[in-house]
C-alpha cells in the first residue's frame, strides 16, 4: 500500500471506527452517581487515614506533617500497613514512588507487595508468600540517579539517589493492566548527597520560605489577624491538541519531536474564529469525559472543558488548589490525557506549537497567596484603595517582577515554547504586569495623594472603582457584575480579579519551576517591604496607616516601570520596554545565562536559600543541554523526512510528469502543461536540496564541535541550526503545494487538524 493509500485508508477508518463507550458509575438504585460521590474515591486522604489508624498514630503523623516532629518508625509502619490494605482492597499489586525529575514529566518504578519468607524446618527450607509493605519501604526508594538529568552532579559511577515520600501530598491508586492497580506515593527526588534533582523539592522549599515571609508581613500589618501559615494557590489551564492516532503514526516529526516540521496550512483553519467555544467533537468529548471521570476518582477537580481557538485544540482547567498539590494534579492530568486519548484512537499533543501558523498551547498558571484563615491576600475587596494589606502584597508581586523578570523568562524558556511566545495570543518574552484601568487608577491616586477618578462608560453607566454593574439595555436581561479589570491576552503576567495569571508558561512543561521562581522572587520582595515597613514604624508597636502609605507610595514609584496596560505585541512596546530597562530576551539560550548572574544567584541561594549553588549550576547545564538536544533531534528528524520521504516523492512526481509528457509527444499530442509543471517543480526541488545540504552540514558541525560550555553549544544550535530548520521547512512547504496529492507521503494539515 502506498503512502497515499495509507492516508486515505486512515481517513476512512477515522470516519467509520466504532466509538468507545464508557459506563458512568451508578448507585445501587440505578441512578447515576453525583460527581461529589465519586470525588477522591481512589485517594488515601487524611479522612481515610484517620479511620484506618489508631488516634495516637494519626495525631503523631499530623504533627510530622506540620513540621513539628520527625516521623518515627512506629508511625511509618502503621501508615504503611493501613495504606497497603486499603490499596490492595482496590486491586493494587504494586506500589511506586512517583516523582518529578528534570525531564518535564514524571517517573515511576513499580515494586510488588509480594514478598517471600523462608522458614527452616527439619524437612528443609519452606518458602511462604506474603503481602508486605514496611514503613521503610513507604518512606524511601532508590532510583538510579545517574540516569536522570543532573547537570553534572551525578556521574555513572555515582548512581545512588533517593525518592522520599512527600507527606503533604496524598497517596492514590491508579488502574494498572488486567484489572489490577498500582499505589502511587508522591515523592521528592534527591541525590546521595542530599541535592535536589527534581522539580518538587525546590517547590516545597519555596512554599515554606514564602509562607514564613508572608506570615510575618501579614501579622505586622494586622497583628489581630493571628495568621500562622500562608500558602500559594494555583490553577493551571491546560491547553492541548488532539489528532487522530492513525494519522499521527504516519508523521515521524510528530512522533519524535511533538510538532510538525513540515506542512502547509489548509485554506480554512482558524480565520473564521468559529472553533473557540464551539461544539466539542464527539470523539474528543468522549475522551475528555473519560479523563474527567478518572480525575474525579483521583481528587483532581477539573472544572472546565472547551474548544480552544485553533482547530483540533482544546482546554481543561481545574479549581484552584494549594500549589504543590496543583502541580501534582496537573502532571497527573497530562498523563491521564495520554492514556484516554489512546483508548479513543486519538493522540494528545502538548507541544507549545505543533502546527505552524495557528495558535499554540500554553499552561496559564493562575497564582495567588492565601492565609490559613481562608483569606486571599490578592483579593482587592470592594474598596481596594483602603485595603492596605492587598496593596502591599500586590506591590510585592510587582517588585518581584521588576527585580527578577529575567528569572521568570528563564523559567518559561525552552526550544518548544520559543515557537509560541509573542504571537497568536501567546505573550511575548518581555515580562510585564497588567493590572487594568481601575487598579492603575488606585495606585496612581495613592501615589499622587488625590481622590479617585470616576470612570465613565457612555453606553452603560458611570463606573466607580470598587466593583461595578453593567446594564446591557435589554429589559429581559439582568444587570451583570463587571470585574475590576479587563483581560489582556497579550500580557505575560496579568492581574485577573484576585490572582495573577502567568500566561507565558508552556503547555508541555511542568509548572513547578515557574512557580518556584515566582515564589522565590515574591519572598525576596516581601522581606524587603517588611524591612522597609519596620524601619518606617520605628519603636511603635505596629505601623500606622501613615507608615503603610509611606511605604506603599515608595513601592508604587519603584515598580511603575513593570506595569503595562497596552498591546504587548506592538513594536512601540518593545521600544518603551527598553527605555524602562525591562529585559527583552530573544532566545532560550540567552535567557539561561541570567540563571547564573550574581543578582539572581544571590536571591535564589542566599536570600531565600531555595537552591544551593551546585543545584543552580546543575539546572543551568540541564536547561542548556536539553535545548541543544531538542534542536539536534528536530534537525535530524527533518533531515530524515526530507531525504527519505519528501525528495523521493518529488522525484517520483517529476518522473511521472516526464513520462506523461514523453508519452503524449510520442502520439503527437501537445505536452506543454506537463512540461510547464515540470519546469515549475524543478527549481523548488533544487532549492530544497540546497537547504537540506546546509542543514546537514550545520547539524554535523554542531554535534562535532560540542564543548564543555553548555550555553555556547546551545547558542550555536540556536544561531546555526534553528534558522536552517525554518528554511528547509519553507522549501518543503513550497514543494507540498506543487506536488500532486497522490504522491505526497505525509498526512497533511487538513487531515491532521480536521479528522477528529
Keywords:
single chain, 756 residues, alpha+beta, Ubiquitin-like (UB roll), 9-stranded mixed β-sheet, 22 helices, 15% strand, globular
Number of helices: 22
pLDDT < 50 runs, ≥5 residues: 456-466
Number of strands: 22
- Any guess at the CATH architecture of the domain at 34-198? Roll
GO molecular function: glutamine synthetase activity
Organism: Coemansia erecta
Domain GS catalytic: 206-646
InterPro entries: Gln-synt_C, Gln_synt_N, Gln_synth/guanido_kin_cat_dom, Gln_synth_cat_dom, GS_Type-3, GSIII_N
Can you characterise this structure?
This protein is of the alpha+beta class and 756 residues long. The protein contains 22 helices and 22 strands. It has a domain at 34-198: Glutamine synthetase, N-terminal domain (Ubiquitin-like (UB roll), Roll). The strands form five sheets. Strands 10, 11, 12, 13, 14, 15, 16, 21 and 22 form a nine-stranded mixed β-sheet that branches. Strands 1, 2, 3, 6, 7, 8 and 9 form a seven-stranded mixed β-sheet that branches. It is globular, with a radius of gyration of 29 Å. Residues 206-646 form the GS catalytic domain. This is Glutamine synthetase/guanido kinase.
